[in-house]
Amino acid sequence: MTLATRKLGGQGLRVSVIGLGCMGMSQSYGPADEAESIATLHRAIELGCTFLDTAEVYGPHTNEALLGKALKGRRDQVTIATKFGFRIEDGKQIGGVDSRPEHIREVVEASLVRLATDHIDLLYQHRVDPGVPMEDVAGAVGKLVAEGKVRFFGLSEAGSANIRRAHAAFPVSALQSEYSLWERNLEPEIIPLLKELGIGLVPFSPLGRGFLTGDVKRAEDYPEGDYRRNDPRYQGRNYDANVEAAGTVRDIAAARGVKPGQIALAWLLGKSGDFAVDIVPIPGTKRRKYLEENIAAASLRLDAAEMAALDEALAPGKIAGPRYGERGMAMVDR
User: Fold this and answer.
1) Residue numbers annotated as active site
2) At what angle do helices 62-70 and 34-46 cross, to 10 degrees?
3) Are the beta carbons of 130 and 100 closer than 8 angstroms?
4) What SS3 class is residue 141?
5) Is residue 149 in a domain?
6) What total of structural domains would you count in the chain?
7) Cβ-contact 237, 294 below 8 angstroms
């Protein structure tokens, strides 16, 4: 199959309707396997999943370098999104954010080298920097667009006030934020704003960090170094409540003869029409098997009754625990 495409924003960006989150190829979910990761990237291109998401902080730096290596001779077949905004020294994330205009330029120049390309298709501010006016951030990216080093501007986990400020200074094509069946925080305020301004939505962790796939364990059962060991929603009573809430996803999947994760992705794609906002999820994987499962979700259509059942079963009040610990939540601009 070849994936359909969707536009993101009103500036001409068009991407595959499902993208590929590449973070896990370098960190967070078990040991890296470069050969399988590269094979997964090549398979994604074969299947038309050509919207690839990375960031300088993934690794740090090693994820962009992996894409640069894997995409040699294939650069013109993909749309690359990357991000700036965290403080990194000597190849290590040291905490805090940095979106000073001069730093944005430094990051972009270094990312271009690692990605082995002369332009970044979509450049996101990874987290809002309260010390730098959003107008200055947008202006810095706008200059890079004018120079041809960047094509489109995006934000990640930004709140409504900063989305408005950024978009007024330079057009924002996409907002990347966590959004899925079990993380619905965007619905009351952010999604209506995206519709108003004509900005696309790129949900990361659309499978609930793996929870919505049905193949989950308690936090303590994951190996050291796996992100899920510290995820509040995988811990203790939160885990029990969330397994129960996700039961409807499993039930609908069983009735359809598909995987639970495919139901979760089909729900997201269906929400694009409900909200009149272009939604392009970027499920992350480093294995071809799961990539192919995720892409197959693009051909799955849920009916109104199934959508309503999922909406009810995983309503915000039925999910237990915050999506990050205290430090992570403090960096979300809401």
Assistant:
1) 58
2) 50
3) no
4) helix
5) yes
6) 1
7) no
Tell me the pairing of strands 5-8 and 13-16: antiparallel
Range of the domain at 117: 5-213+261-301
* Structural domain contains residue 65: yes
Integer Cα distance of 161 and 315 in angstroms: 26
Give domain status of residue 277, yes or no.
yes
Residue 48 sits in a domain whose CATH number is 3.20.20.100
Residue 209 CB neighbour total at 10 angstroms: 23
Closest by Cα among 182, 186, 177 to 263: 182
Distance CA 18, CA 313 (A): 24
Please choose, from the candidates 129, 64, 123, 124, the residue with its C-alpha nearest in 3D space to the C-alpha of residue 96: 129
How far apart are alpha carbons 156 and 334 in whole angstroms? Answer: 12
Q: What is the pLDDT of residue 248?
A: 96
E strands, the chain, where? 5-8, 13-16, 20-21, 51-53, 79-84, 86-89, 92-97, 120-125, 150-156, 172-178, 200-204
Question: What are 208-249's pLDDT values in tens digits?
Answer: 988 999 889 999 999 988 889 999 999 999 999 999 999 999
Among all chains, which residue has been given the structure tokens 């390309």? 117
Between the CA of residue 246 and those of 212, 313, 318, what are the distances in Å? 7, 7, 10
For residue 187, pLDDT over 90 is answered with yes
pTM assigned to the model: 0.96
233/325 Cα distance (integer angstroms):
10
Residue 1: per-residue pLDDT: 63
DSSP assignment of 31-68: ---HHHHHHHHHHHHHTT--EEE--TTTTTTHHHHHHH
CA dihedral for 197, 198, 199, 201, sign (positive or negative): positive
Distance CA 206, CA 136 (A): 31
C-alpha to C-alpha distance for 273 and 64, rounded to whole angstroms: 33
In a domain, 254, yes or no: no
